[in-house]
Amino acid sequence: MTGPALVGLVCGLAAGLLAVPLVRRLPRGIPERLAQPAWTRRAGHPAALGGAGACAGLAVGFVAPSPVALAVGLVLVAVLVPACAIDVSWRVVPDSLVVAGALGSLAALALLDPGALGGHLAAAALGGAVALALAVAARGGLGLGDVKLVAMLGCALGAALPAALGLALVAAGLAAVPILLRRGRGATLPLVPFLALGALAAVGGAPIAGIPLP
């Protein structure tokens, strides 16, 4: 196991275990939360969160092409692991996680490659604006929490944001087909896990902090 992979594994495991109290506490202050079936609460179990964090961190450690990408990727792991569990159980995205992700990503860039900050902030603004327009057009199909999360991912991924969103939407579309066939048009799908998948995949080949796509 390489050094970055080991760092990712350890940091991801720690992030997953630290997410346990967040998953239990943060949804309580969100009146818009929509309780899902009881089995979805298993997403917040310490074993599930620790395992998800460890796997995500390990993957980031393997694919990150630079220390900057590794740092940003681990920030995303720390934020997206609890965000996924909360979205699965409650269909909401806490603002505190979005703010933490944006600030953590920008802090990593400021320390390791401050010249990249402008491009990442521009990606956040453009991505958030496009997501907001889609949310208005979808009339409830895309929540404001998802819009804010897209803007946060722009802070982290910069020019890799479109690739991350494209992968996320394709994966979500494929997953939605059997759900709609089984439950009908009233069924809902948590979008954050798919955004997390796209974002963490983009870390491996993203132009993060000036690293070009292969």
Question: Overall 3D geometry?
Answer: globular
Report the end-to-end length measured between terminal Cα atoms: 24 Å
* Unreliable residue runs: 207-214
Mean pLDDT: 90
Beta strand count: 0
- Per DSSP, the total helix count is 8
In terms of structural class, how would the helical and strand content be classed? Answer: mainly alpha
What's the order of the H and E elements?
HHHHHHHH
Question: Rg, please?
Answer: 16 Å
**Number of folding domains?**
1
Percentage of residues in strands: under 5%
Task: Characterise this structure.
The chain has 214 residues and is an all-alpha fold. It has one domain (3-204). The protein is built from eight helices and no strands. The protein has helices at residues 3-25, 46-63, 67-90, 95-112, 117-138, 144-157, 161-183, 192-205. α2 (46-63) packs parallel to α8 and α4 packs parallel to α6 (144-157). The longest helix has 24 residues, at 67-90. The radius of gyration is 16 Å and the shape is globular.
What are its keywords?
single chain; 214 residues; mainly alpha
Sequence-ordered SSE layout with sheet pairings:
Blueprint: H1 3-25, H2 46-63, H3 67-90, H4 95-112, H5 117-138, H6 144-157, H7 161-183, H8 192-205
Helix pairs in contact: 1-2, 1-3, 2-3, 2-8, 3-4, 3-8, 4-6, 5-6, 6-8, 7-8
